[in-house]
Structures are given as C-alpha cells and as structure tokens.
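Late entry, evening session. Most of the bench is empty. Finally got around to the prediction I had been postponing all week. Sequence below, unchanged from the version circulated by S.P.
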Amino acid sequence: MSRRARIRVQMARAGPGRIWVGDSSMSDHNEVVKITGADRPVLVTRRLRLEPLAEHHAEGVWRAVEASLSELKQWMGWAGSASREAQTKFVRDAESGWGRDGWIFAIVHRDEVIGTIGIDRYQPLIESAEVGYWLRSDSAGRGFMSEAAGAVVEWAFTTLGLHRLELHAGLDNTASIRIAERLGFSRRGLLRHGAVNAWRHYDVEVFDLLATDERPDSSSAQPQEDA
C-alpha cells in the first residue's frame, strides 16, 4: 500500500486548529481531514509542535538565530546581517503573508523555538513549491529536522494539494542532503551558484518529490543525525 493511501491528517483532540500527522493505523478511519491554508493549523509530531509563525515567536526565533550564527552564515545569506529587528520583521511578514507568500512554521520543542521550516516559492499553475528550513545548532543531531520536514511535506501534499516539492541543499551540506534522501526526495541536478551564504554564492543540489511518489512514514521516524 502506498504512503499516500496509508497516511491521513487527523484533527488532534487537544483543540481546534491543531492537526496530528500520523499513520492511518491509529484509527479505523482512513479519510484525510482537509483544512484550508488560511486556517493556520498547528502540526503536532511525536516530539514537536510546528506553529504558524506569529509575532509572539519573534524573540524565540532571534534567540535561536543568535545561538547559531556561525553555522547559519555558511548557508544563509540573511545570516550575514542578522539582527533582532530583521528577524522580527521576517516573523511579521511571514505571519501577514501566510497562504499568500508561503506557509512558514516555527519549530517548537518543549516550548522553545529551535528553528523554522516552511513552504515558499509557490507556483500555482503547476502546483509546485519549495521546502526551506534551518535549525538551532545545539538542537542538531537529534532527528528534529527530519521529523519536522516529514510532517510539513505530508501537510503540503494532503492539505495544500501540492503536486511537487523542491528542495535545495549545498553540495557540502551533508546534513541537509541526508534529510532530503530520508524523506524520499530524488536528486535532479546541480544549480550553479543557486544560493548565497554570508560571503559568496555557492552551488546547490536540486531534489524533488511528487505527491504520487512513495515516501517514508514520517510518523514512525526515529531520531537520527541531521541539521
């Protein structure tokens, strides 16, 4: 049985607006509960809460960025000029642009923001978008990003109705490449100078995943080393 047939999105008992991403074996029903993008659901995984980015996350996002700047500068152009003000603006823009410019979540573990993950660069004509993420450095190596990304990918396909997701990873970013492979993404090519870090452009590998592709069960993913 395919991953698409086995997985559903179930309304969590904890309250409205929250969804649990899990296997259909958790109940006798196999239906997918559809939620519009404007509803701003919280995705709940085994260890994490993925909360639509909002202004109350701003300070937590900044603390995570500030604690991780040396690593973030290797891959993120914005990290070279990161500031509390810039991160607050990013959070506000993500909140106001939800469902229009993209869908960005705060990754929350034990009530602390440890990164962000989202879907952006949406192309409605071909139902395609890109997955992007970063994780606080001292939270790396525990499988958090694989867990978060698995939930967001499933939500993007089952709830947003996307057909294709793309993921870019620097050639030397082995942690991000492992995440892509673990989630079932396939290598499609090299994008020369496809990204920029704090100092220069760099080449990236392009991965993609279709809604019809077989993919691993994110609900049963075990902690593994990742970004």
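Two things to note before I forget:
The radius of gyration is 17 Å.
Confidence is low (pLDDT under 50) at residues 1-38, 219-227.
Will write this up properly tomorrow.
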